[in-house]
Specification:
The chain is α/β, with parallel strands linked by helices. The chain has 22 helices and ten strands. The protein has a seven-stranded mixed β-sheet with strand order 3-2-1-4-8-6-9, with helices on both faces.
């Protein structure tokens, strides 16, 4: 009964993704009757600000992106400004940001001003940074487009978002579905491939059932400033972190508050030109997931304490919670299955119960139904990938750039790597959930976007995961070799976690697969203009020398 209960939780979560993907696939192959309005709209006097919240980021990357974005919008219809919102506390990085900003002002024209503000008190982290901006300068603008430190958006996409907001006066937020770009390690290129091929299917399904009750993912979205200022002020959860205090995953809650106030929140699944980068290594992915895990688990308190939320908003938050509880549930399924196998091996079955009977009560093992259940589960699990491959094979864009053979080979490679990496992420997310339940706060660690870990550090970080794999494999072998073979997809990934983490986090491996034509995407072959211009602008900031903090104290002119 315990196994049945845990299995029901796991299969329900997998089925949710399957239904999402099936709806998205059906929408993709069905002509859309309600196309976006093509009525002209004047946005000449509409003021839109592009905000770039940063915290200890790579200065050359951020300022290159801002510079390229500002220059890209110079002749765009409408009024645009860029605002760099720094929460940096390290004085050396802060000085580098100021030097880069001085350099940036030399490259942008006055019709798209770029402003820079650094907070000295980092109240409520990123959400507090945006809140301060909205309270101080929000009244100056009609709309706000939020970027992340590794976000990119095409000029036409930005203009289109502004036009859509002007056409829909009851819409407060339009969220794009960012595609991953710029991957250089094997892991990032694998995520990039999956995002490009399967992501539109899942995003399309969510957009279909969410309708005007969509979600916000914190960046690459346009927000109506007045609606956000009036309706989306975040509460502080009573108690201490990790469950109390400021809400870390603020975006889901802000979307829910906008809906509660009667505003529409939409997901623009049919709008391209929105991009972001992804963590280059499993370690970086786990660090980011630890912070997101705490923020999503805080949503349980939001759901229980906050009244008036729409049921769709509650569903969005519950899916976020379940995305992290699924990992410990999967591990529990393995452990319960192992306990049942041990019971069957070492406990003598009772052929005759307490009641008198002429015939024994034979144990029933239905191999045919077991195989059917396994086959159905695998079909549900891999259906989103199959849907994506089918659409890719009929897409002119994919066939014209990547090609059918390389596409099929890429799917096979992505499936193998995903199967190997999944148990490692399961262990990392389970550890995160346990540490949060134990009352440990994640803090505010800046995200590393370049990887480059030493082998010794990688193996040290994954030592517990590798030990768990050895224990599970040894226990399975004690039960039976057949059980060990059944558990192999999980134990292999765990035992070789260090090796897989170091290999998938290698740029050399990523470039080797690229030379072989594997895991290619159309955006990798033909990079979008926003990403290409930002990468080209990095050179202007890479060699800048910021004065040391001590030099500033000594030099009156620098002060």
């Amino acid at each position: 009964w315990v196994l049945l209960f845990v299995f029901a939780i796991n299969i329900s979560w997998i089925c949710f993704a399957f239904v999402n993907a099936t709806i998205g696939f059906a929408c993709a192959v069905t002509p859309r009757h309600a196309a976006r309005s093509a009525d002209p709209v004047c946005i000449r006097n509409v003021r839109t600000v592009l905000t770039f919240p940063i915290y200890h980021e790579a200065v050359e990357d951020v300022f290159a992106t801002v510079s390229a974005t500002a220059r890209m919008l110079e002749d765009a219809p409408g009024i645009y400004e860029c605002f760099i919102l720094s929460d940096t506390t390290d004085p050396e990085i802060a000085l580098a940001e100021e030097v880069a900003y001085t350099e940036l002002l030399k490259t942008v024209r006055g019709n798209v001003p770029v402003r820079y503000r650094r907070r000295t008190i980092n109240h409520h982290r990123k959400s507090g940074n945006i809140r301060d901006f909205v309270m101080r300068w929000g009244g100056r603008y009609d709309h706000m487009i939020v970027f992340d430190a590794d976000s990119y958006m095409e000029r036409d996409t930005i203009v289109h978002l502004v036009e859509e907001m002007e056409r829909a006066p009851h819409t407060a937020l339009i969220q794009t579905i960012p595609q991953l770009v710029g991957g250089r390690t094997l892991l990032s290129r694998c995520q990039q491939f999956a995002s490009a091929l399967y992501g539109p299917i899942l995003g399309g399904g969510m957009a279909w059932w969410a309708q005007n009750e969509g979600n916000f993912w914190g960046h690459n979205a346009i927000i109506r400033m007045r609606a956000f200022a009036e309706s989306a002020g975040l509460p502080v959860i009573p108690g201490k972190a990790p469950f109390g205090g400021p809400i870390l995953s603020h975006d889901f809650v802000e979307a829910a508050l906008l809906r509660r106030a009667g505003w529409r929140v939409q997901i623009a699944d049919d709008l391209g030109g929105s991009y972001e980068e992804c963590p280059p290594t499993i370690i970086d992915l786990a660090v980011r997931d630890r912070r997101w895990c705490q923020g999503n688990l805080q949503h349980v308190a939001v759901l229980t304490r906050m009244s008036g939320l729409k049921w769709t908003s509650r569903l969005h938050m519950m899916t976020g919670v379940m995305s992290y509880l699924a990992s410990p549930s999967w591990l529990l399924l393995i452990l319960v299955g192992m306990a049942l196998s041990l019971q069957g091996k070492f406990l003598r079955p009772e052929y005759f119960g307490d009641e008198t009977s002429l015939f024994p009560n034979w144990p029933v093992i239905d191999s045919a139904r077991a195989l059917t259940l396994f086959g159905v589960t695998m079909a549900i699990l891999f259906a989103p990938k199959i849907y994506g491959l089918i659409l890719g094979l009929v897409s002119r864009k994919w066939r014209g750039t990547v090609g059918s053979v390389r596409m099929i080979a890429g799917v096979l490679v992505e499936v193998i790597i995903s199967i190997l990496v999944a148990p490692i992420l399961m262990a990392a997310q389970t550890t995160a959930v346990i540490s949060i339940l134990a009352g440990k706060d994640s803090g505010w660690t800046p995200q590393q976007r370049d990887g480059g870990y030493r082998a010794a550090d990688v193996f040290r970080r994954h030592a517990v995961t590798m030990a768990l794999g050895v224990v599970l494999l040894a226990s399975a072998l004690i039960i039976s070799p057949v059980f060990a073979a059944w558990l192999a997809p999980a134990t292999i990934g765990l035992i070789f976690a260090g090796h897989l983490s170091y290999w998938t986090g290698s740029r050399a491996a990523g470039q080797g697969f690229r030379r072989a034509g594997l895991l290619m995407t159309p955006e990798e072959i033909e990079p979008p203009a926003s990403f290409r211009h930002a990468r080209a602008a990095v050179r202007a900031y890479a060699d800048l020398q910021a004065p040391s903090f001590a030099a500033v104290l000594k030099d009156e002119a620098l002060r």
